[in-house]
Amino acid sequence: MTEPVRAFPAITEQEFSQACGVLEQRSSDKISDTDWLSIRWTGEELLIREKRKIICKNANIEAPSDFNGADDHELIETGIEDCIDSNSFLPRIDSSVFLIIDFSITLSPIYSVPVLWFACRYGQDNKALTLEQVYAWLVPKPSLASLQKVGVMGGISMAHHPVSDRPAFFVHPCNTQDALSALEPKSLTPEEYLILWLGLIGSAVGLHVPSKLVSI
């Protein structure tokens, strides 16, 4: 029987590693027909690649002429290890398009909670999303106010990724323990903790756990 997390809402390095390894193993045959393209535990970070359909009716957002023509292979080859270009312009979308988003989950040695990192590029010219695009495309409306004001979810910032040392966006973990505590869950295994955390922090940027993984 798996031991529960000992110091909730914090999680230890050993518990985090265990949770990531178990989730990777259980996901191997359960993410087909979901938005998750892959999930991999490297021993340092949990990597999740997601394909997301974006529909935007904002007249000020327009997709580049080459974006809809970009094939999935070109998009899949981009990821969190690529540098973010902060000078990218906000494109306009007038129809549905697909984005490939690379998420990375690491453990914060300061806050003792997981940290969600992410990067996304689009189009044949491999442009990186700006922070403005992140809020416009990836963050659901219910989470906008909290993230922009560094509320209970923390806020979205950019920093060098602790594993790749490349610039990436991340959801600041300063308020994660408080947010988890507010849920008042019963005793959790490390994997249950990780899924709960994903449901809370991941949903802030539209990353949802497939129902196949929730049903154990």
Describe this structure in words.
The protein is of the alpha+beta class and 216 residues long. It has a single domain, classed as Yope Regulator, Chain: A (2-Layer Sandwich), CATH 3.30.1460.50. It is 28% helix and 22% strand. The protein has helices at 13-27, 72-76, 131-138, 141-148, 176-183, 190-201, 211-214, and strands spanning 36-41, 46-54, 97-107, 114-122, 127-128, 156-160, 167-171. Strands 1, 2, 3, 4, 5, 6 and 7 form a seven-stranded antiparallel sheet that branches. Strand 4 and strand 5 form a beta hairpin. Helix 1 (13-27) crosses helix 6. The chain is globular, with a radius of gyration of 17 Å. The two termini are 15 Å apart.
Helices and strands in order:
Blueprint (H helix, E strand, L loop, with lengths): L12 H15 L8 E6 L4 E9 L17 H5 L20 E11 L6 E9 L4 E2 L2 H8 L2 H8 L7 E5 L6 E5 L4 H8 L6 H12 L9 H4 L2
Antiparallel strand pairs: 1-2, 2-3, 3-4, 4-5, 4-7, 6-7
Helix pairs in contact: 1-6
GO molecular function: Atg12 conjugating enzyme activity
Pfam family, one: Autophagy_act_C
Family: Belongs to the ATG10 family.
Sum up the structure in keywords.
single chain, 216 residues, alpha+beta, Yope Regulator, Chain: A, seven-stranded antiparallel beta sheet, 7 helices, 28% helix, Atg12 conjugating enzyme activity, Atg3/Atg10, ubl conjugation pathway, autophagy
